Amino acid sequence: MFGQKDVNVVQHRDKWVGGSDVPAILGISKYKTQFQLAKEKTGIEPSDFKGNEYTAYGNALEPQIREYINAINQTNFQPATKTDVERGIRSNTDGYDQENQLILEIKTHGKTPDIRSYEAQMQLYMYQFGVEYGWLALYERPDNFDVEFDADRLQIKVVHRDNQYVQHILDAIESFWIRCEYLKEKQDMTEQEFMSVGQNELTIVAQQVEKLELQLSNFKKLEEQYKAMKDKLYQLMEEYDVKKWETDRVVITRVLPGKRESFDSTRFKKEHPELAQQYIKVSPTAGSVRIKLKEAN
User: Fold this and answer.
1) Angle at 121 (CA atoms; ends 115, 122), nearest 5 degrees
2) ∠ CA 288-293-297 to the nearest 5 degrees?
3) pLDDT at 2
4) Which residues contact 81 (CB under 8 A, 6 or more apart)?
5) How confident is the model at residue 286 (pLDDT cuts 50, 70, 90)?
6) What secondary structure, in 3-state letters, does 204-263 show?
7) In sequence order, which residues have a C-beta less than 8 Å from that of residue 98 and are 6 or more positions away?
8) Which one of 103, 159, 213, 296 has the largest count of C-beta atoms within 10 Å of its C-beta?
9) Domains plus CATH for the chain?
10) Which residues form a coiled coil (predicted)?
């Protein structure tokens, strides 16, 4: 009665994050949590879902809807796949029109379509296919599951690509795969432990940096004391005309005052600004963190 889903969509799903996984990873899915998805991807609790009447109905209507949209709009949407091996992402779009630079996402739904999840899925597809717009085809499913196409049940919604949202999705997918690796090592971890992976690492490193920063602060105070004691030692060696002083562990030598030449760059820039401008060198700087100790209460 109903159609079958393309094998490319369902094959090796454990190795990739697909568009349908995005809502769970973002925590907006009504059907699955990120933790449940991770257990499926890692094989700890493999999914035994083989489809149901709703997915079968969608498989049957999808080609009809695509054909109708192409005929009415003179588009050429065809199913297409893009993969990103490095990020572990695979996007199977219901339609890609290369000439018009559009993607098509087809959803057969009940009375209340999950627009938020659909659009999140489409953002990933638009990113992978490098397009700025997508068409969301919403087809309201009849109660009797009639597979004869009815144009009155179809609505098209234009979705714009949101690069900020795309980056949020990519970051969430990256964190998801990292958590999956931890889950493989500790398969009995709780959902709370799973979701804290990454955040815990940040906390640990921040605490280590805090400890080192406090040590550096104390070292700076020690350095100031050390400099003051060296100045006093020099004055005493000068006063008693001592050129060298030895202990069991160090040799202290008094260095006489002298002169050191240096280039006065400040004066040069002031007196020869145009010439100085020719020698300005711009170098890239790496990203960093700025740390400031809080004053004690």
Assistant:
1) 85
2) 155
3) 43
4) 8, 90, 91, 92, 93
5) confident
6) HHHHHHHHHHHHHHHHHHHHHHHHHHHHHHHHHHHHCCCCEEECCCCEEECCCCCCCCCC
7) 76
8) 103
9) 7-190 (3.90.320.10), 199-274 (no CATH)
10) 205-239
